[in-house]
Amino acid sequence: MALVLPLGAQGLQGSASKDLMRKPVEAEANLPPSPYASKPLPELKGVVSWKTLADVKTVKQKDRFMPEFGKSVATLDKKEVKIQGFMMPLDMGEKQARFILAALPPTCSYCMPGGPEQMVEVQTKTPVKYGFEPIVISGRFSVLRDDSMGLYYRLTDAVAVTTPR
After folding, report:
1. Does residue 22 sit within a domain?
2. Residues 41/114, Cβ–Cβ less than 8 Å
3. Is 123 exposed, middle or buried (0-12, 13-18, 19+ CB in 10 A)?
4. Are 161 and 137 in contact (CB under 8 A)?
5. Domain containing residue 140
6. pLDDT of res. 113
7. Which pLDDT does position 103 carry in this prediction?
8. CATH number of the domain encompassing residue 115
9. Is 59 a member of any domain?
10. Quick one: which of 26, 48, 56, 105 has the fewest CB in 10 Å?
C-alpha cells in the first residue's frame, strides 16, 4: 500500500489527473441508452407490477429498520408469479443463473437503479441470456422479512417467459 499511494499521487499530478477525471468509465460508455429510462415499464396482464411490490414501508424495530409489507405483497409469498424487469448480472458470462431483476434499466455500471422494493433476486433453473431489453421471469416468489443483504424479494426456480407485447 505504501508503494501504491506515492506512485499514484505523483502519477495524478498536473494535466494527467484532469484527463483521467474527464474520461468516462469504459463500461458506462458502452451502456446503450434505454428508452425505458424516462418512463416505467408498461403493466402486463398476469405479471406482478412494480407498483404492487412498492407496497412496503420501513419501520424501526428496536435498533433496526425492517420492512413491513402491505397485504398485496404478503399474499404473493410462496406463490408462482411473473415479474417483468431489467437484468442486472451478478456473475460473468453471457448467460446468468443468478441476477437482480430491476424495475428500472441500469444507467451506471456501479449503481443500483432503485431501492429494495424495486429489485428481485432471481435464481433460475437454467441460465438466461443477458440483454438490455426488459424480460419476464416466472418463478416461486418469496417475501424476505430479514435478509442479510437487505433484499425484500427473491424468485427461485425461475424461467424466462415469452409474452406478447
Report:
1. no
2. no
3. middle
4. yes
5. 32-161
6. 75
7. 93
8. 2.40.50
9. yes
10. 26
Provide the domain count of the chain.
1
Residue 2 inside a domain? The answer is: no
Tens digit of pLDDT per residue, the chain (165 long)?
343 433 344 444 444 434 434 444 444 456 666 666 666 788 899 999 999 999 999 898 888 888 999 999 999 999 999 999 999 998 889 999 999 999 988 877 777 778 899 999 999 999 999 998 999 999 999 999 888 888 999 999 999 997 544
14: left (phi over 0), alpha (psi -120 to 50) or beta: left
**Using only C-alpha atoms, what is the Rg of the chain?**
20
Q: Fill in the amino acid letter for 8.
A: G
> How far is Cα 160 from Cα 158, in angstroms, rounded to an integer?
7
Amino acid at 10: Q
Between CA 54 and CA 76 the distance in angstroms is: 13
Residue 23 half-sphere exposure toward CB, CA atoms < 13 A: 9
Cα separation, 13 vs 78, whole angstroms: 57
